[in-house]
Amino acid sequence: MICKNGIWDSSVPGVVFDKNGESNYSKIFEAMIELYPRGEKGIKDWEKVILNAKKAGKKKKYDCIIGVSGGTDSTYLLHLLVKKYGLRPLAITVDNGWSSNISVSNIKSITNKLNVDLETYVIDYEEMKDILKSFMKAGLPWIDAPTDHAIKAIFHRIAKKEGIKYVFHGSDFRTEGTQPIEWSHSDTKMIKYIQKKFGTKKIHTYPTITPIQEIFSGLVRKIKLYRPFYFLPYNKKEAQVFLKEEYNWQYYGGHHHENSFTKFAIADWLPNKFNIDKRIITLSALTMSGEITRDQALNEIKKPPYDVEKMKEDRIFVMKKLGLSKTEFDSIWNSPNKIFKDYPSYYPLTQRVSKIVKLVAKYVLPYKPMTIIQDEIRKSEE
User: Fold this and answer.
1) Which candidate among 116, 188, 303, 342 keeps its CA 20 to 30 Å from the CA of 90?
2) Residue 159 is inside which H or E element, if any?
3) Chain centroid to CA 357: how far?
């Protein structure tokens, strides 16, 4: 069965359909739309954030941090923050050793033209490489989770160092959707366990942040992470046209393909090893946002993520960069598939104290996170 509002189907964990053919994931999307409306209210809410960011950053070199990857969302957001809203951001890019030349060029182009300071946080590649291989050996679907976790930890670390309260991120549920927690969850406890079990190196320089540290960062240091496109009108295709004309920006071929390992994880590892196609989530979001039609989404999902021959070449590149022989890679590929619940993590604890987690989240986060909304709606329809 396929959701009548998007293209969520039975391959999505926890999906259920009502008698009208509407999935609970479309209801999650609708709940997010209701919670974060655009238009007049969205702009008004956003202008309050801008005002507070400028106030908090007064007499400081920077009034906010923005993470930039060279992709559409973060690049366009940086343009808006500087040109439209007059902020003084410190741009942060995290180098995990897999950034594409296109993404690096895009970041340099816009930061130079906007005269924005750029801080590149380089994660020790040998350590990062070993952790990524550990996640592959663990048989987990989202093998790029260590990069996502490191980025969050780095944002908090640099915000603390610079005395910055506002951190901006370019992601948007309207174009990216809500990932099932079964596909994406990770935390410090899980990362450390997996690295100890499957890795060959100890974690020394790889940046981590525990839930307690994150709570302290939000409650005491008042560091908040905002997603401006929750509030602001934004069309990805129009943004790409603008960026090409204004900043000589280049497209990298697909969602999150600006990073070579992320591209491999999304477009090869997930669909070909786990039969997980994350495009179901993003295409459903784009359909419900009105950027594409449902028929366009259904036609797009039938196609391979990208050119099959190029995918084979990219897999060889990944093997070489990870230092894996074909025999080693095949052994990892053919090992049993696992989910995050097969390993220790903070997740069981957060479920047991979910009421406390929701209460604390109100004070730590500036918005109700998608994970909580997803959890509430999925549990209500079980």
Assistant:
1) 188
2) helix 145-162
3) 21
